Amino acid sequence: MVHARALLTGTDEGAVDYVEADVRDPAGIVAALGATSVDLHEPVGLVLSAVLQEFPDRQAHDVAGKLIAALAPGSCVVLSHHTADPVDDTSRSMLAQVTVNRGLPLWLRTWDQVAVFLAGLDLIGPGLVSTVRWRPDSADGRPDEREAMCWAAVARLP
What are residue 152's DSSP bridge partners? Predict the structure, then answer.
């Protein structure tokens, strides 16, 4: 929030605004945005980075659905989500340990389950892929796809 406040002066590219809100109340977020410079009738960006994995299915779909439904055509959604699909035992073990260390549940989802959050949106290349595939040209020293534990996508509302 400190960084958001520092950006409030805006830039030549446009204004920056934010709300301090609880993602468990997506309707409250949308309502709070009405008191800011964010115009939800114009295209905006929504970032759901490692957020939906914090909720069980019904709540995750409610959060994503309500926030996306409030966006104007042309808006973009950035989504990342830890996966239930890692193919190596090391990745599975690491994710299990993250859950234990946090003391909070972590709802891992398969590629198919994550794709549902973006249903009806136009995926921007490379689509819903392992985070490793987002910059394949700079993969030196990076893990291969079997080691990635997160799906990521950028999608545009038609």
Answer: 80, 129
3-class DSSP state of 9? coil
Task: Summarize pLDDT for 20-32 with one digit per residue, the tens.
Answer: 889 999 999 999 9
Angstrom distance (rounded) from CA 69 to CA 108? 24
Q: Pick the closest to residue 117 from 152, 75, 91 (CA basis).
A: 152
**HSE of 126 in the Cβ direction (CA atoms, 13 Å)?**
11
Picking from 71, 68, 97, 70, the residue whose alpha carbon sits closest to that of residue 82 is 97
- Residue pair 19/32 in contact (Cβ under 8 Å)? The answer is yes
Sign of CA dihedral 94, 100, 103, 109: positive
pLDDT digits (tens, 9 = 90+) for 48-91: 999 999 999 999 999 999 999 999 999 999 999 988 776 667 77
